[in-house]
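Hi C.,

You asked whether I'd gotten around to modeling the 124-residue construct. I have! Everything is below, sequence then structure, no commentary in between.
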Amino acid sequence: MRKLAALAAVATMSVGTLTACSGGDYCGDLKSYVETSKGLDMKDSGAIDKVLDESKKVKKSAPKDLKDDWQTVVDYAQKVKDANGDTTKLSELAKTELPKIQAAQEAITKQAKDSCKIDMNSGS
C-alpha cells in the first residue's frame, strides 16, 4: 500500500529531465515546480509545503485550459500535506485520487512538452 501511495505522488509531483523552457511566466513557474518536486519525501512536511506553494504559483500562471488540472494538483498536494506522513492515509488517498491525478498529469505533461519544452516523463 505504501508503494501505491508513493507511486501516485511520484506520478503527480516527481518529474525527470528538464530541457530548455520558453513561454513566459508559466514555463518559469513550471520549471521551479519541477525542481522543487524532485525526490519528494512524502513524510517531509517542509518539502510538501514547498511543493504545495509551487503548485499554487503554477496554477496562477497556467494557461486557462490547464487551470482545472492544476487545481487538481493543488488539491492533491493539500491532501498529502493533511495526511501528515501517515502511510495509511496516503495509501487511501492514492486509491481515491489516482484517476483524477492521472488525467490532470496527462494534460499538464503534454502542455509542458509542447509549450515549455519540459519533459515530465523522463526518469531522473
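If it helps when you're writing up: Confidence is low (pLDDT under 50) at residues 1-24.

Thanks,
B.
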